[in-house]
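Structure tokens please, single chain.
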Amino acid sequence: MTFNRIAVVGAGAWGTALANCAARAGRDVALWARDAAVVAQLNATRENPRLPDVRIDARVAATGAIADIKHADAVLLVVPAQDSRKAASALAPHMKAGVPVVTCAKGIERGTHRFMTEIIAEAIPAALPAILSGPSFAADVARGLPTAVTLACADEATAAALAQALGSQTFRPYHTADVRGVEIGGAAKNVLAIAAGIVHGRRLGASATAALVTRGFAELARFGRALGARTETLTGLSGLGDLILTCASPQSRNFSLGIALGEGRAPDGKLAEGAFTARALVELADEKGVEMPIATAIARVLDEKLTVDQAIDSLLTRPFKAEG
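Here you go.
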């Protein structure tokens, strides 16, 4: 399997970063954007305003023609989780059978409770669904700073080939066939990062942060096991690794949203996937009989059913129990 021509659908910060990453690995890259003005700007200036001071690689060609996707050996779908179905449906008429479509979003679809690869399978039946996830910030990847992620596909040979095609000295994808485990880590950690941000914003201290992240990971792991995820995936880059990153840095939009909530101020308006995933995550956990008190508290805060102080009290007054 060779993947010399890569199409990246979505020209935001993460899409542009991954386009640069694929180009750095020696691939020819088509970067698709919906807005013609954005396409013209990217090709003319070789910069994306969402990634200041980052030069777009010469191998990357921005395009607004969705039909250009048909020439790709693999497609990276880099749009927000809740927009993934619409984007995948638009791709479907232009896709060749058997071409991998790699979702790079972290979330669960509201209403349907579908994971991202399930959406791809439903919207593009001819595609081979895959997912790329892990502890990574767009600015770091775009600049070529060392980053490791996980790339999952049910056909592990395809996952390995994709990892080889996208990997470079500074971008290291580890491959697996545990698609669900990778999806669960990415979706759940965003919700937990909001909780960590609230702890930071409320100045509850480093001890509280450590407790929150540890107990949050216990929730993530329980949920993952209930849905058949492998333990090594949950404790790997796309699970514990991504949780550590997003619960510790204001570069994380989810963590920053939590800080704003904790400080009692309005969020900055930037997309935080966890805000849309929280309710879907909790509803799916309830369906599976999995207890997720931290995620539930965050979902209720976001739905304005609890204040931040009430959510904190609800967690601090839970009955004492054995660790597990």
